[in-house]
Write a structure and sequence with these properties.
Elements: E1 2-5, E2 10-13, H1 20-26, H2 28-31, E3 37-40, E4 43-45, E5 56-60, H3 65-86, E6 91-98, E7 101-107, H4 118-133, E8 138-144, H5 145-154, H6 158-167, E9 171-177, E10 180-182, E11 199-203, E12 206-210, E13 212-213, E14 216-220, H7 227-243, H8 248-256, H9 260-289, E15 293-297, H10 304-317, E16 321-326, H11 355-366, E17 371-372, E18 375-377, E19 382-384, E20 389-390, E21 396-401, E22 419-425, E23 431-433, E24 436-437, H12 440-456, H13 460-477, E25 487-490, H14 496-509, H15 518-529, H16 546-549
Length: about 550
Amino acid sequence: MKIFCRNLNRYIPFTGGMKLSEIAAGISSELGFTPICALVNNKTEDLDYPLFAPKLVEFMEATSAPGRRVCVRTLCMILYKAVSELLPGQTLRIEHSIARGYYCRLLGQDGSPAVPDAATVGRIAGRMREIIGADMPIVRKERLTADVIEMFRLQGLRDKVMLLETVHDLYTVFYTLGSLADSYCGPVASRTGLAGVFSLIPWKEGCLLLGADPADQSVAQTPVAQEKMYRAFTEYQKFNRITRVSDVGELNRVVRSRQSAELINVAEAMHDKLLGRISDEIARRNEEEGTKVVLIAGPSSSGKTTSTKRLAIQLMTNLITPKMISLDDYFVDRDKTPRDETGDYDFESLHALDLERLNSDLRRLLAGEEINLPTYSFELGRRVERPRPLSLGEKDVLLIEGIHGLNPELTASLPASSTFKVYVSALTTLHIDDHNWISTTDNRLLRRIVRDYKYRHTSALESIRRWPSVRRGEEKWIFPFQENADATFNSSLIFELGVMKRFAEPLLRDVPHDTVQYADAHRLLRLLSYFEPIEESQVPSTSLLREFLGGSSFKY
């Protein structure tokens, strides 16, 4: 039998039962790198994967997108082993991605926080380095789920037990590192030595796990300050604890007990409360400092549009009249639009906007003058003028939604006191289990896939294909300015993936197996497979989720 190796563009013979690692070892001099995983028929697999039939195989290095995910999961398993050995009885919870790393907390036997000191974090990091240096094997296994449940129960992994009891898979894949077993939402490396460099530092009430820097694999990432993001995450985690839904297993139990409608109502009320607080602060600033311009920014599919509309309602309850303009109308003419590295028009660049005209109009509005809003024709690729007069009264506030709202260059000529900046993002706080979090990026991608299909007739294949370009734009134009926000609104909803499941799964299954995008489609399908479906009919028409599903009472 033969596999076709995409790296070498040729067939390679193998005998039944050979592992990918054995094949990689036989062609190591030709590969030119040490693989950490492989795409098998465009699906990510670990190197312990056995071959029994012809396959299309592409070995992946640690710097690739699948390779980075494998590195992170491997580091998480090594961290779990180090904590289990050094701090028996304590529970490791890997909360979420933040500050370029992964925030981890330790819990005592009673579930209360066990805040590690610097010396303890140093001991854990030292043990992790020993485990990596020993290049210990990580073995992939698959057993009857009932047996895996009992094994996890004996290890004290109650969250994994609850998840597996609600998912009802017949067999479950897990990994062993020495005598320790764990499961992950994707493959891990076959040896600890492949995990790469890392650092583990004290951070907040726990520690921050940082993997290799993508720009230089020989050093670990350097953390960045994200205090406002941390507070937004922490506030929602308190909400999770109050509702007793912190992971997917707990959510599934709520759905099966027919209590999901109550959970949805509470989550929607939480959104109203958060937006109400932001509205109150804008009203205070308007009264005391004359703030008249509210800028709402956030990455793709964060729910900026609905957040803006709901914030407008909250402002009216504060006796403030909101008026809205779109930054899209301030695009420069097509022939002046900057281009990206591929030569395509870069509409996400700040310099695709007529900053001079925007700042002039805003200064005139703040001075009490009337302006005529521009109108941009995407069909013509240029601005067209038509009557659109606008002025601001004493109790009027201007709401401007757009990805550049937090960039100080956008409104450089305005006094700081005249603006209020809101950052919107889906900061997912629901866990799959204690060692597997739900990526905020994946949550937004699922929203985008569903929305683009419904409103733009775009396939999941095309949405996934475009996503890396979208992410590059976010990294350049949005994320560096997150901490400039005066308020952060977490647009995630604890129940949303249960609702999105029915909409997203058919679209993801339509992604052809012979495309590289199938790897992401398969990964997202696996994520959704953990969730019990939730009926869309339970979601109110004012919900932010309706921006993606349809059926909203707002006009877009």
